[in-house]
């Protein structure tokens, strides 16, 4: 008993780590590959095998940090999708640790810090994206550590902290454009600056210089991307998702309300209303740390409303990094709620009220995403219900692997960029018995080269996108005269993934 009491903190920390590993790795390949995952993983695979294409993501205006990490893991992990998803698992682990250090630095309380790390493990938003081969968990990680080192910088005003901060922000900028908020929000650190000391002017001047050092380091790191002739595509891609300055000047608030509706809905669905209440209540309990709480709120609110103001095309994953400060505030409110409750049954009730929805959502995220009905429709649609979902890919890969053991096969895929052909190329790029050919657009009759291939070897065609010539997605035009080999109906009405065989005509 004495051992348990003496080492309770360490044992709890180890338990949280074990829970993290279980929740992130259990059934990690259960969710079908998603279109963007196929793109990023295929890029990493190409970069890993050809040094000339290390900046391949820039061809689509995406920064390469995720791709660089994934291509290293591909040397250690055979399954390319698993390697890509492990990048996010590692990022999530670093986020959990970062939240511990951030919370402990803000509130000077290891118990609250450990509680916040535990909450992160259960947080459905983090759980979804820590198990997917996407950029967003990596961005959240860099935002957490950027905020931590910015707080250290304003409190200790040291050159080494400025240099580390610059590198952390730089890595974030090399991951995704929205990591630039770590630079944009830096002036709000003055909320924590002590203006009451005698030499505050000298100290403020030094802090300003060190902040500039961090900014310079971050931008020098980002300038590496200028070595690629595709660097300019980043800004073009950014304006696919955000309105241009000219458009905003013409109508600055035209889209604010329309964007706030889905943003707040996604926030409420992933974070849940009870936990948002906890985050708000953090300002009502505990007399200390008001400025620290305000800083955390700004780091959420500023990018959140910026997304509402300038967002042209929004998805729930874009706000994941913004919610990290809310986890710290919610953890603070949760801790004081437990402190207020003196009886064990009341503590248990508080846990149930504020975390039960987390746990229920987590169960379905891990076991069967199709049943996670309380999560945002857009995520459920993209990942399991609608055409961007890779439902059917795993079965197709297994089928083609078996067929290609004894003979050459030819596979044509609808679409030249995205889920197809990348999801198949990932698994057959070094298989000489499998030829993959992407085609677009879809015509009334099959292309001549497909017909020619069907006379030489078994020839298959994948359809999965919305069909112009028919009433359903994933259905071939009637005049192609294809024989279905595999057809899977998705949750979205009249949406299918179909593998056909083209017979010799």
What does this structure look like?
There is one protein chain. This protein is α/β, with parallel strands linked by helices. It folds into 2 domains: 2-371, no CATH class; 393-502, D-Maltodextrin-Binding Protein, domain 2. The chain has 22 helices and 5 strands. It has helices at 2-6, 8-25, 35-49, 65-73, 80-107, 110-122, 124-129, 136-156, 159-173, 181-184, 200-222, 233-241, 245-250, 256-271, 273-281, 290-310, 324-340, 344-367, 377-385, 393-403, 419-428, 448-454, and strands at 409-414, 434-439, 459-463, 483-489, 496-502. It has a 5-stranded mixed sheet, with helices on both faces. Helix 16 (290-310) packs across helix 17 (324-340) and helix 17 (324-340) runs antiparallel to helix 18. The radius of gyration is 25 Å and the shape is globular. The mean pLDDT is 94.
Walk me through the topology.
Blueprint: H1 2-6, H2 8-25, H3 35-49, H4 65-73, H5 80-107, H6 110-122, H7 124-129, H8 136-156, H9 159-173, H10 181-184, H11 200-222, H12 233-241, H13 245-250, H14 256-271, H15 273-281, H16 290-310, H17 324-340, H18 344-367, H19 377-385, H20 393-403, E1 409-414, H21 419-428, E2 434-439, H22 448-454, E3 459-463, E4 483-489, E5 496-502
Parallel strand pairs: 1-2, 1-3
Antiparallel strand pairs: 3-5, 4-5
Summarize the model shown:
This protein has about 500 residues and is an alpha/beta fold.
């Amino acid at each position: 008993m004495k051992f348990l009491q003496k080492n309770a903190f360490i044992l709890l920390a180890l338990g949280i780590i074990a829970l993290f590993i279980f929740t992130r790795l259990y059934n990690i390949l259960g969710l079908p590959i998603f279109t963007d995952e196929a793109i990023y993983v295929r890029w990493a695979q190409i970069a890993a095998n050809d040094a000339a294409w290390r900046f391949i993501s820039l061809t689509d205006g995406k920064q390469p940090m995720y791709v660089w990490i994934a291509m290293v893991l591909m040397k250690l992990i055979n399954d390319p999708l698993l390697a890509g998803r492990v990048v996010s698992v590692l990022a999530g682990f670093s986020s959990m640790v970062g939240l511990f250090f951030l919370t402990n630095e803000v509130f000077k309380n290891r118990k609250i810090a450990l509680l916040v790390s535990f909450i992160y493990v259960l947080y459905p938003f983090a759980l979804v994206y820590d198990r997917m081969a996407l950029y967003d968990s990596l961005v959240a990680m860099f935002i957490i550590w950027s905020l931590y080192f910015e707080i250290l910088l304003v409190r200790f005003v040291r050159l080494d902290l400025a240099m580390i901060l610059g590198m952390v922000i730089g890595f974030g900028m090399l991951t995704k454009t929205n990591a630039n908020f770590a630079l944009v929000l830096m002036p709000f650190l003055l909320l924590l600056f002590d203006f009451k000391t005698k030499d505050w002017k000298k100290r403020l001047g030094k802090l300003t210089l060190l902040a500039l050092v961090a900014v310079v380091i971050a931008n020098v790191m980002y300038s590496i991307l200028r070595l690629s002739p595709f660097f300019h595509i980043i800004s073009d891609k950014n304006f696919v998702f955000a309105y241009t300055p000219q458009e905003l000047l013409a109508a600055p608030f035209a889209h604010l309300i329309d964007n706030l509706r889905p943003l707040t809905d996604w926030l409420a669905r992933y974070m849940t209303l009870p936990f948002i209440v906890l985050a708000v209540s953090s300002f009502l309990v505990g007399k200390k740390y008001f400025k620290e709480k305000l800083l955390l709120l700004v780091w959420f609110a500023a990018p959140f409303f910026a997304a509402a103001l300038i967002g042209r095309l929004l998805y729930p994953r874009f706000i994941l990094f913004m919610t990290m400060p809310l986890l710290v505030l919610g953890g603070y409110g949760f801790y004081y709620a437990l402190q207020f409750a003196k009886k064990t049954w009341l503590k248990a009730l508080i846990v149930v009220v504020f975390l039960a929805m987390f746990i229920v959502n987590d169960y379905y995220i891990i076991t069967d995403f199709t049943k996670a009905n309380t999560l945002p429709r857009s995520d459920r649609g993209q990942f399991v219900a609608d055409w961007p979902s890779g439902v059917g890919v795993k079965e197709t890969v297994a089928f083609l692997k078996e067929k290609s053991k004894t003979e050459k096969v030819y596979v044509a895929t609808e679409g030249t960029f995205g889920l197809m052909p990348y999801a198949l190329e990932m698994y057959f790029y070094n298989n000489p018995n499998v030829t993959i050919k992407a085609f677009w657009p879809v015509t009334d009759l099959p292309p001549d080269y497909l017909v020619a291939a069907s006379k030489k070897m078994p020839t298959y065609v994948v359809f999965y996108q919305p069909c112009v010539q028919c009433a359903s997605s994933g259905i071939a035009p009637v005049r192609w005269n294809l024989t279905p080999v595999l057809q899977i109906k998705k949750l979205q009405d009249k949406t299918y993934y179909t593998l056909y065989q083209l017979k010799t005509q």
